[in-house]
Design goal:
The structure holds 2 protein chains of 2 kinds. Chain A is of the alpha/beta class. Helix content of chain A is about 45%, strand content about 20%. Chain B is about 40% helix and about 15% strand. In chain B, a hairpin with a 4-residue loop joins strand 4 and strand 5. In chain B, helix 1 runs antiparallel to helix 4. Classes of the chains: A alpha/beta, B alpha+beta. Bound molecules: iron/sulfur cluster.
């Protein structure tokens, strides 16, 4: 089973023949290997033999075992590495200062199928078909939200009212005949859900509603970071199918380049991201010390990101016996299976039903 | 062409027939035709999935290991069929190396198709075929009889019919689905 490789430090990826190294300064406060400031401007520094200098450390990346790389720290990359990773079909996702997703170094599509492409596009162009899928994504997201709420209701939190309201919203999804209306109702459901966070989470952290660009408090910082990681993981899953990353149904395709990932990750956020947050906060794994508060925002510091990534990745690797397949699959594999279910919808083999936590 | 029922019907004649090049397919498709129609349709529309279970990776390594002492020469003919040849004292032999004889029928027809192709398209006669299973120390000889030859034409027509269906045939559960690369796709 290939794994995702998360790089939290600042540093540079270098290649020597068929080996890729990550080189970083042992002392983080020292200038990083990839750049230095000269007269207020960032310039490339000599990277030749860098890894032999005592103040730097290098790690070999086990390329054959890597599914994708998450550059969470400031990771710079040489053209030699770019072409090598592309050849190995390893996408590299880059994240910004606030832990937000920035871009993906995307290898060539190796599973192109004209048939699938046309069918996916036809679904977008057919208003009713697009609407049907968009509705399924909202339904899947809402039902997984519900599963989280029901869990905490069983744990003794009083979430009755919110549960009933969300159930009503789900029952009424058929009424909306426009994708923008569905987007709006998705937002409404999410707001009701976020409103319950103050009851679900320990009092150490106040939530006070969702804020982005930048997130204003720790919970928002974690939501943003987690959603960004999930976005990357979903891009990976789509990459291993014939689906086109850019044709989406709930989100407008023009919004972001890889917008199908936005649609699919919506379904998995409550399960993979929010549950990570609940656990980290309620088990006191993450504390105030894991965040940096700035004048206009809040972000996870390195230890915070590390804790988050560790739990998130553990979750991805957790396995569950799949009901239809009768074999164990990882949570990460569930996202891939979701892509296959979409393929089957496009091929008229089986109507798409979104993943809902069944255990 | 030799007609069925003739006394020498087990011996293929040296005559070849005119073939519409449109009906020619890759050898794998002949194999898939016997294995599964869903697989044939999906594969023909470039819908393929990588198998990633550790078991399969182990299998691939084993395959490489156990076959490396068979010296074959690979040829890609007309960009369509990829053949492995071995030279033998008796002439040219097409050999197809397979992992297990579980799907022997499909393997045999794949080789029969190669022989048919060589005869009718390339006008290369008197070629023998072998399916080899090195891990089982087993070899099956394949001969293109007149009967098989006309059957092959019918199979090709069938294959083309399936491929051009507007929709993929629905998966039908078979005991070997669990070891198929499409298992997750078909049964999720
Ligand atoms: S899983 Fe079964 S039905 Fe699907 S392609 Fe394979 S053999 Fe055919």
């Amino acid at each position: 089973m290939k794994v995702n490789y998360y790089i939290l430090r600042n540093g540079k990826l270098l290649r020597k023949e068929n080996t890729v190294y990550f080189v970083f300064a042992k002392d983080e406060s020292q200038p990083q290997p990839f750049s230095a400031e000269v007269d207020g401007e960032e310039v490339e520094v000599e990277t030749e033999n860098l890894s032999e200098k005592p103040e730097y450390e290098r790690r070999i990346l086990p390329i054959e075992q890597i599914n994708s790389i998450f550059g969470i720290g400031r990771v710079s990359i040489t053209s030699g590495v770019i072409s090598f990773l592309a050849k190995q079909k390893i996408p590299v996702h880059f994240f910004g200062y606030y832990g937000h997703y920035e871009s993906t170094l995307y290898p060539h599509e190796s599973l192109l199928s004209g048939e699938m492409h046309i069918r996916q596009a036809a679904y977008y162009l057919d208003r009713m078909k697009r609407l049907k899928l968009a509705r399924k994504f909202v339904e899947g997201a809402a039902k997984n939200i519900l599963r989280n709420l029901e869990y905490y209701q069983n744990e003794g939190k009083n979430l009755n009212e919110e549960i009933i309201t969300i159930k009503n919203h789900i029952a009424n999804l058929d009424q909306y005949n426009d994708v923008s209306e569905l987007m709006a109702i998705e937002g409404t459901i999410r707001n009701i859900y976020y409103g319950t966070f103050s009851k679900i989470l320990k009092e150490t952290f106040q939530f006070e509603g969702r804020t982005k660009h930048p997130p204003e408090n720790p919970i928002n910082a974690m939501i943003s970071f987690g959603n960004s990681l999930l976005y990357g993981v979903t891009i990976n899953a789509i990459y291993h199918t014939q689906l086109d990353q850019t044709i989406s149904f709930l989100h407008e395709p023009s919004e972001r380049r890889f917008s199908l990932s936005l649609d699919i990750s919506e379904i998995f956020k409550p399960f993979l991201v929010d549950r990570t947050i609940f656990k980290l906060v309620n088990k006191d794994v993450i504390t105030e010390n894991d965040f940096v508060k700035e004048l206009n925002g809040c972000l996870l510091n390195k230890s915070g990101k590390e804790k988050f990534v560790r739990d998130f990745d553990e979750r991805l690797k957790t396995t569950i016996k799949h009901r239809e397949l009768g074999r164990n699959v990882s949570y990460e594999r569930l996202i891939y299976l979701e892509c296959l279910k979409l393929c089957k919808e496009f091929l008229s083999l089986k109507p798409y039903e979104p993943f809902v936590i069944w255990w | 062409m030799v007609l069925q029922g003739q006394s020498n019907s087990t011996e293929s004649s040296d005559e070849t027939i005119e073939i519409d090049p449109e009906i020619l397919v890759g050898g794998v498709k002949v194999n898939y035709y016997f294995h599964c129609k869903t697989q044939l349709w999906l594969f023909s529309h470039y819908i393929t999935y990588e198998q990633e279970s550790d078991l399969v990776i182990a299998g691939k390594i084993l395959e490489k290991e156990s076959f490396k002492n068979i010296k074959t020469k690979n040829l890609l003919i007309d960009d369509k069929i990829s053949l492995d040849f071995v030279k033998s004292s008796g002439g040219l032999v097409v050999v197809d190396i397979k992992k297990s004889s579980k799907f022997e029928e499909a393997h045999i027809y794949q080789v029969l198709y190669y022989l048919w192709y060589l005869k009718n398209i390339k006008k290369v006669l008197k070629v023998k075929g072998i399916v080899a299973y090195p891990s089982e120390r087993k070899r099956t000889e394949v001969n293109l009889t007149a009967e098989k030859e006309s059957e092959m034409l019918r199979i090709l027509e069938e294959i083309n019919k399936i491929i051009s269906l507007p929709e993929s045939p629905k998966p039908v559960y078979k005991p070997y689905c669990k070891s198929c690369a499409y298992y997750e796709f078909c049964w999720v």
